[in-house]
Design a protein that fits this description.
Elements: H1 13-22, H2 33-68, H3 78-89, E1 102-107, E2 112-118, H4 121-129, E3 132-141, E4 154-159, E5 166-170, E6 177-186, E7 191-196, E8 200-201, H5 253-263, E9 290-291, E10 298-299, E11 305-308, E12 311-313, E13 316-318, E14 321-324, E15 342-348, E16 354-357, E17 360-362, E18 369-375, E19 379-388, E20 395-404
Antiparallel strand pairs: 1-2, 2-5, 3-4, 3-6, 6-7, 6-8, 9-10, 11-14, 12-13, 15-18, 16-17, 16-19, 19-20
Helix pairs in contact: 1-2
Length: about 425
């Protein structure tokens, strides 16, 4: 272990001369002890000051380097801070509200939506004077419905706190249009509206089955800003083409065919112009044996039934059509089908109990019965039902799950129906 050097004042002349040699003091061997001690102290003091200055400089440099890692803007000097403080003095505090009732519904995903609102206290106080008791938030299913004069498809209601200004709402069924509304519920059942959001479409959980490819040509020099080149219309909202009033051609070919069928009596001719033909005591008026310009078939009347194979005339193709007895042949006709499902959950309990379905309160009738009516779309619908007695000491529960799968969908409305030939 190295021995510590004693203080300079306690050193002998020999020890001082050794230190002076290390410090490269000239002519130290001719100096007296007091003079040698003074020169050594002067040199050591100067060296210590230089070391301290170097340490401070290194420390300041390190601090600047560390601070620069988090500096994302201009350097804040005292002058800058003073100017910013002067600007802040002229700006008041942010208001708690803007004096205008507004509510906004934003879908987060197919299962949840975020809603926020801003309603002045003066409007709330006015509705409370009209009998409003409980502030509540409602979610309407407004798919293909105008809420100004129609009833929503579905209604979900959630009690809200007076100080709340935002909420997350569960979406009952995806791929539907929804509207959020804030208001007060009265003791007599009235609903006083504070504000209503715009109609918002919630995206579907699964990819859409609607596939429609449309190809358009856009010139290279065409300005794309603010231009609409093609508008996609969902199949459910497309207008069905008007049925044609008459399917006859200008030359009356179809009328002639139908007249031949009506005039036939007992004969039946079947076959092709290039195949065998069988004639059974044909009536003179039916011997004309109508041959179509395409040369692909032969048509003639018969009393029982008359059939044609491979008929093609005037660009309209028909195959295997049969006409029975003397009635007119089958005309094109329209056919349509619409079908859907709804879910009704109903029950009863004590009239003064509290009932929730899926965590949402349900209003009971005077006799304690309740009824929950909602749309039943594809997927799993989860409805836990929980009832609590008025004193809170007793409760009952039932948990229901419903699943719907639409394995096939070939439907159309009356407006979408188009004429079809029946083969």
């Amino acid at each position: 272990m190295a021995r510590e050097r004693p203080p300079l004042e306690e050193m002998t002349l020999r020890q001082l001369r050794k230190v002076a040699a290390e410090l490269e003091i000239s002519r130290y061997s001719r100096m007296r002890k007091s003079q040698l001690l003074a020169d050594i102290q002067t040199i050591l003091t100067a060296q210590g000051a230089a070391l301290n200055q170097a340490d401070r400089s290194n420390s300041e440099t390190q601090e600047i380097v560390e601070a620069s890692k988090f500096n994302v803007g201009s350097e804040e000097t005292e002058e800058n801070l003073e100017s910013l403080a002067a600007i802040d003095k002229s700006i008041g505090d942010l208001p708690s509200g803007y004096g205008e009732s507004r509510i906004v519904l934003l879908p987060r995903d197919p299962q949840w939506a975020y809603v926020y609102w801003d309603v002045p206290n003066s409007q709330k106080e006015e509705l409370r004077k009209q009998g409003g008791q409980q502030l509540a938030l409602r979610l309407y299913d407004a798919t293909d419905v105008n809420l100004d004069y129609q009833t929503p498809n579905n209604l979900q209601e959630y009690n809200s706190d007076e100080l709340a200004r935002e909420w997350y709402l569960p979406i009952p069924i995806s791929d539907r249009d929804y509207v959020a509304e804030l208001g007060y519920r009265c003791a007599d059942g009235r609903w006083l509206v504070l504000t209503r959001s715009k109609v918002v479409h919630v995206p579907p959980v699964f990819p859409s089955e609607w596939v429609e490819d449309n190809f358009i040509t856009v010139p290279w020099d065409q300005t794309l800003k603010g231009q609409t080149f093609f508008t996609l219309v969902p199949p459910a909202k497309k207008v069905a083409p008007a049925p044609e009033e008459s399917t006859t051609t200008s030359d009356g070919s179809y009328d002639e065919i139908f007249n031949i069928a009506r005039e036939a009596e007992v004969q039946r001719i079947s076959g092709s112009l290039y195949g065998s033909m069988q004639h059974e005591s044909m009536a003179p008026q039916s011997l004309s044996s109508y041959v179509f310009p395409s040369g692909a078939g032969l048509f003639a009347g018969a009393a029982g039934a008359i059939s044609a194979s491979g008929i093609n005339y005037s660009g309209i193709g028909m195959s295997s059509y049969s006409f029975f007895s003397s009635e007119a042949p089958i005309r094109p006709r329209q056919f349509w089908l619409v079908a859907d499902a709804e879910l009704i959950v109903y029950g009863a309990t004590e009239p003064d109990a509290s009932v929730t379905i899926g965590g949402r309160p349900i209003k009971l009738n005077a006799d304690g019965t309740f009824r929950f009516h909602t749309s039943f779309q594809d997927g799993i619908q989860d409805y836990p039902i929980f009832a609590v007695a008025a004193d809170g000491e007793q409760n009952r529960a039932i948990h229901m799950k419903f699943e719907r799968q639409t394995l096939e969908r070939r439907t159309n409305t009356r407006e979408e129906a188009i004429p079809e030939w029946i083969s």
